[in-house]
Amino acid sequence: MREHMYNLRRLEVLCELKHRGTLAAVAAAMSYSPSAVSQQLTLLESEVGASLLERDGRRVRLTPQAEILVAHTKTVLQQLDRARTEIAASLHERTGTLRVAAFQTAMLTLVPAVLTWLRAAHPGIRIEATQAEPDTALPALLARDLDLVVDETFPGHPHLTGEAELSHHVLREDLMRLAVRDTAVRSLPELARHPWVMEPLGTPARQWAESLCHAAGFEPDVAFESADMLVHARLATQGHAVAFLPDLLWADNAPDVPLLQPERVHRRTIWVTLRAASADHPLVRTVLSGLRHAAEQAEEAISRHLGNNNQ
């Protein structure tokens, strides 16, 4: 029996297909043409001696043999992550690039603070940051397009993606306060007949907010939908809608809309998520320290800005 050495790049193509689902998405992610991706997978099938793909309508799905190969490839890639970590730890200088994604309010407040901190303490570290919600950022982290993600979860909606491969670190508990122009309102049930602004359907934030309204005995009148918290704040400030607004939004400025004192369940958890095999990489640990520093600064600023606002 002739043994074949599997090509690591082709194995990575197969893993990308597992994460991204289509040849076109893999081609875009890896800067290949779709035909080149198909060719790489055909060559890998030849090396393996088994079919790796099956047609599923207009898409393709992995065969059981391909799933076995993907599982072992993930182990190899994790070992390479550990090797990079050990090499970086053996060097004295902290230099290099870290690719970061963060959801909107973290991108507005925490990321700039980290950049300022790094510029003073570790000027050799470059951050490439993009704004992305967890449902796209976490798969990109698993696919190695990113090195670190600042993400959020809501009660009843825990992390579900790649738990065995990812490491989650709590950054802060962020209260979600009700913003309502009508100062006579004192509790959530009183808002049954008010128009609301919420995040789009299907998002954890929307599901969480609607579940709270249902528990209070009413179906919210969602007149406005937006993924932009600044839009939520503007509509609430001008009295057009009621909104749940996160405390992190007030790290830089005091709110100009009354905020109801939240109940214990009115919160989200902000996390830093990274691949477990890279958790000890010096750049990752440094940026994680920077994010914790930024979160502490934000906490102090939020306390100042909300001091006289709560009803």
From TrEMBL:
Stored PROSITE patterns: HTH_LYSR
Record key words, sorted: DNA-binding, Transcription, Transcription regulation
Domain of life assignment: Bacteria
Isomerase in keyword set: no
Keyword DNA-binding belongs to the record: yes
Pfam families, sorted: HTH_1, LysR_substrate
SUPFAM superfamilies linked to this entry: Periplasmic binding protein-like II, Winged helix' DNA-binding domain
HTH lysR-type domain segment(s): 6-63
Family: Belongs to the LysR transcriptional regulatory family.
Protein's name according to its UniProt entry: LysR family transcriptional regulator
